UniProtKB/TrEMBL annotation:
SUPFAM superfamilies linked: DNA breaking-rejoining enzymes
Similarity comment: family membership: Belongs to the 'phage' integrase family.
Annotated protein name in UniProt: Integrase
Entry keyword set: DNA integration, DNA recombination, DNA-binding
UniProt xrefs under InterPro entries: DNA_brk_join_enz, Integrase-like_cat_sf, Integrase_catalytic, Integrase_DNA-bd_sf, Integrase_DNA_bind_dom, Integrase_recombinase_N, Phage_int_M, Phage_Integrase
GO MF assignments: DNA binding
Residue intervals of the Tyr recombinase domain: 282-459
Organism of provenance: Pseudomonas savastanoi
PANTHER family, per database record: PROPHAGE INTEGRASE (PTHR30629), PROPHAGE INTEGRASE INTA-RELATED (PTHR30629:SF6)
GO biological process, one term: DNA integration
Signal sequence range: none
Amino acid sequence: MADGGSNPPGSTNFTSKDVQGRLFLCLKSSKYGDLRSKGVRWYLSSSNNSCIPRGIPKPRLIFFGIHAVSEITMGAQAKGLSDVKVKAAKPKEKDYTLTDGDGLQMRVRANGSKLWNFNYIHPATKKRINMGLGTFPEVGLAQARKRTVEARELVAQGLDPKEKRDADRQTLRATTEHTFKNVASAWFELKKDSVTTAYAEDIWRSLTLHVFPDLGATPISAITAPAVINLLRPLETKGSLETVKRLSQRLNEIMTYGVNSGLTHSNPLSGIRSVFKKPKKKNMAALAPDELKELMVTVANASIKRTTRCLIEWQLHTMTRPAEAATARWADIDIGKKIWTIPAERMKKRRTHIIPLTEQALELLEAIKPLSGHREHVFPADRNPRTHCNSQTANMALKRMGFEGRLVSHGMRSMASTILNEHGWDPELIEVALAHVDKDEVRSAYNRADYIDRRRPMMKWWSEHIKEAATGNLSISAIIDRLD
């Protein structure tokens, strides 16, 4: 026996070509005691073929591997399990366990399934734990042993292999599954039920256009405020301050959803709105009461599609919002009772809204019926008649007619409110007609039959006023006369 000047005292040299045998004998003869059950790293000295444990001063070493006793002895000591034994294991009335050694076990279930487990003592709590290693035959004996060796090495380092595996899986999910777009999609599924269809479409469109191309594939845990601010700066520079404001709000909500869902630890976007310029609040452009005549004459003579013409006047007579008018469905209109019931999911305030229909409003329906009476929506889209027209259709038409900067389609509601108030109509009825609902108990009951009946005279007066403003030449006449 020679120590070569660097081997630890008590270690033994072996010149046999049987390396496995040398390792086995070395384990038994080391001055550190019988180390066969230690499961430590072992090396072969390139200078004298000796075997020494890791951490002992030594010359140039060649790493041999991580060895538990059952693997070190290889043939010198019998294995607990074999491929034949594993395959031959049959289910019994109750579950039972087969042991391979070093904590590797096979659990044979009564239903015939076979599960690999690594049974070990937690390095910190000292509690005995079972860690699943897979099922047989998907994971064979050799692979199960390999996973056991890897797990034992972690235990030797003071780490819990099960906790590490779970953390690794979580990291992988954060990279591949919990991307910003995926989390945004989950958030949107909840959000869309609390807003109108048109508003929901606007939310998703803004994210698709401005956010997803750059941040969609980024793990939500990697989202930072500087990255998002840099993304939105060009929109601010361009003057799209309202878009920046809305995106900041939506991104903040998505990140909050991610935190509450346990997908990320914090929300770095909670305060990003403060770093951008605030948009100046603008009232919806609306015409003065005495300009209603100009509007009606222009609409009557404009070169626009019948669908668009009817849409503008329908919105004016019913005092609805652009999206509510554009998404009107035949199924929601009761011609006999002369009412239009807008479902809560399509209302901004998320409350069903019932509108008494005047004779002029019913005439508009008769004018559009040849074009859309056989379809779901009263005002179908040109490119895809199976869906409704865009909520901005009326707006774009008003711009082409020369009202840009003076009137937007939403402003027609303001015009109606001003005129009705000036002519002494009950302010509460006007607010109800506009679906401006607050938390007051009286307002919350605005769809009661008596409220609807009280609104009919006001709605009739409003439609007659529109007709008079057109000096008797209501646009509907032009629609019927020139069925384009």
